[in-house]
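Why do we care about 3D structure at all? Because function follows from shape, and shape follows, mostly, from sequence. That is the central idea of this module. The next example makes it concrete: a single protein chain, its amino acid sequence, and then its structure expressed as tokens.
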Amino acid sequence: MTAIEPTFSTRSSPFTPEEHATYADIVRFHRARRDEQLAPLFLDGLKRLELDRDHIPPLEEVNARLRELTGWEGVYVRGLEDAGGFYRLLRDRKFPIGHFVRDRKDLNYTPAPDVVHDLYGHIPFHADQAYADYCQRYGELACRYLDDPKRLRRLERYFWFTNEFGLVDLPQGRRIFGAGIASSLGECLYALSPEPEVLPFDVETICAQEFRIDQMQPRLFVLKSIEQLYGSFEQLERVVDA
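And the structure:
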């Protein structure tokens, strides 16, 4: 596998009124249940970065706040990043943001990560220093295996079931921790319903668990605390190297 450099967006036109309206509709619908569904880490980042708006926030404004908080920034890219490009960005404290907005025909789904998934879903978590540092460390680890598809796949599964589709049990109840769930109205309802099978967080099990991107996740994993994820890094290295 050959690592590919990030494909930064060269789109010159601003977002259209329809794209701004789609973003605003999703945020408005999400706002009604957000406090009872999402981990406080996400809610705090949303406020600190002022992402809860009736239009797509200018990335330069979001980045100015984010750099001051944790040294991270978002960068617009063209569609879905190659693994090499994605992990190189994480290593460099950057997060790729798809430079488009999903079709209004289905606000719950997009075939590739868009502004809603990346800017609204992921970026709020990166306003927290511990989370931001963990993600950079994860990117550094993944970059060691860009030419090792077997071990890189273990890391991809781990990221999917934690950063993208993780849950966490908190004193106030079970909450959504993964950005892939956080950015989807349908996934938020589904993930906290009795429908998916929810297993305790376990590094070995997660690294072996395959997934599909075109359906609701039938199996999810729940952390006892967010600190459990940060404290699992050494074990993750051992499992990936096995």
